[in-house]
Amino acid sequence: MGEVKKHDTPKVDQLKTGPWPSFVDDIYSYAEKHKNQACFDIMGQMELSYTNKETHWKHGGIVGVFGYGGGVIGRYSDQQEKFPAIWAFHTVRVHHTAGKWYHTSALKKLCDMWDSRGSGVVNFHGSTGDIILLGTVTDQLEPIFFDLTHQLHWDLGGSGSNLRSPACCMGKSRCEWALIDVQELDYELTMAFQDELHRPAFPYKFKFKFSGCPLDCVAAVARADMSFIGTWRDDIRIDQEAVRAYVRGELKPNAGAFSDRDWGPFDIKKEVIDLCPTKCMYWDENEQKLYINNSECNRCMHCIAVMPEALRPGQDTGIAILIGAKAPILEGAQLSTLIVPFMKVEPPYDELKDFIYKAWDYWMENGKNRERIGELIQRVGLNKFITEVMGLTPIPQHVRVPRDNPYIFWKEEEVEGGWTRDVAEFRKRHPA
Amino acid sequence: MNKEELKQKIIQIMEEKVKKGGKTKIYLKDLQREIPDANPREIKNAANELVREGKLEYFSTGSTVMFGLPGVGMGLEAGVEKPEE
Ligand code: SF4
Ligand code: SF4
User: Fold this and answer.
1) Could you tell me the pTM of the whole model?
2) Can you tell me the ipTM of this complex?
3) DSSP notation for A260-284
4) Atom of ligand 2 nearest to the CA of A277
5) Ligand 2, atom 8: nearest CA belongs to which residue?
6) Which one of B51, B58, B82 makes the best mutation probe of the A interface by having the most chain A beta carbons within 10 Å?
7) Same fold? A10-151, A167-232+318-392
8) What's chain A's average pLDDT?
9) N- or C-end of chain A: fewer Cβ atoms within 10 A?
10) A76, A160, A369 ranked by CB distance to B29: nearest
11) Segment A105-131 mean pLDDT
C-alpha cells in the first residue's frame, strides 16, 4: 500500500477531549492501523465542514444492487480533488436481527468482509435499526451484496419509499414483562413483506416497530408508522400482601432502579395512585388494600413498573396497534394514535396482515408524495380513517376531546329507520 | 389493463415526459396520477418489474425513491434532485 495522506484536523480533534469515547479516536486508530486513506479523508472533509459550516456530502443517485430498490444509499464527496478516497462513499444498510442478538462469529465475518470491500467504518445501529456500513465504491456494491446474502446469510435493510427494516425489543429472550413474542412477530412480518422491504411501494417510508409491553423500550410509539405493543385485556393481578410490603418500605420501588439518591420513604399515593393517567386506582388506608378499576385502566404499566412484585399484567395477552408517529417532514413531529386497543395474535397472523394491507392500500391510493400515513390521517380525519377506511367501530377512548361544535349532520344510514322526504309535500306547506 | 399493457403505458408516460423536456425522474405517485384506472399496487409491481428488466432504473435519495429511464437525466454523480410535488 502506498503512502497515505493525513490531513490537519484541529477542530475535529477537539472531539477527543470530551468525557465520552470518541468516534474520532476510533476512526484515526483504524486509519493508522490499516493505512486507510478513506478514513483519513473522512476526517479531513469533516474538518472542512466544521470550517465552512456546511456539508460536503452529496447523497442520492442511481446506485443500488440488482433487483433491490433499497438498502444502498449513494453518497459522494463534493471535494473530489482534496479527498479522492471518499469520492464515492456509499452507505449499505444491513438488516439487523430481531432483538439485535448476534453471534460474535457472524459479526467478525461481517467486519472482515467490510474491511476488504469497504472503508471499515460501521455504525451499530442507524436510527431505523439497521447495521450501517459506511463507505464503499460503486464497483464493490454487487460483490458486497453477494457476500452478504450468499456467504454470510444476511440481507439488506429498507430505504427510500419502502417498508423500512422492522425492529423489536428483546422481548421474551430476556425480559419477563414481554406479553407477546415480539421477535417471532417481527420475523414473520419481515418475511411476509419482503417485496415491500426491498422495492419501493409507497408514497414515502413506512416503519414497523414491536414492543413486548407498554413500557415500549423501542419507543415504537414515537418512531414507527405502525406500532405493535404487547398488552392484556383481563385484570391486573394484585398481590395485596406485596403491596403492603411496598407501603411499609420492605420492598424497593422500581426494583431499586432509582436507589442512587435518597427519595425519602415510598409514598404509594404520590408515586402510584396520583400518577395513574386514568385515575383508576385507589389505595384504602384503613383497609390497607389497593383497588383498580380495570375497565378504565389504559394499560400504561406505570403502577406495575413501580411495584413489580405486587402487580403483574393480566394473562389474556395480545397487541394494541397504534398508527402515525413520525419526525417533522410535511407536518411537525407526531406520536402515534391508538387505533386498535386489543387484537389476539397467533401465527400465521392473517388478521394482522389484513389490517396492514388495508391501511397500506388506502395510503397508496390517497397519500401524497412524501406524506407519511400519520399525516394522511391528520388530513382526512381520524374519524374517517377509523370508520370508513379501516372499518372499525370507534370507542370513547379514540376521542381525546369531545366536540364543542353543536352542529351535527346526520347521514340517513346513521339514523335508525332512516328518513324519506317528499320535497313536493314539503313545498305545499312551505311555498316560499 | 393487464400487466404488459401497464408496463407499456408506464414507459410511454416516461418517454413523453422526457420528450416534452419535463422531469426525468418521477415518483410512483406521479405514475398513479397518470394512470388513474389502475390499482396503485399493480402500478408499483409493474414499475418494479420494469427495473428488473433494465427498462427503468431507480433513483434514490435515501429517503424516497424515484423511477427514471436508464441513462436519462441525472445519474451516478448527481446530488439530490429537489423533490417536486
Ligand atoms: S418493551 Fe416491555 S417486553 Fe420489551 S424489553 Fe421493554 S419492558 Fe421488556
Ligand atoms: S397500568 Fe397505568 S392506567 Fe392502569 S392502573 Fe396502572 S397506572 Fe393506572
Assistant:
1) 0.90
2) 0.84
3) TS---S--HHHHTGGG-TT--EEEE
4) 3
5) A276
6) B58
7) no
8) 94
9) C
10) A369
11) 96
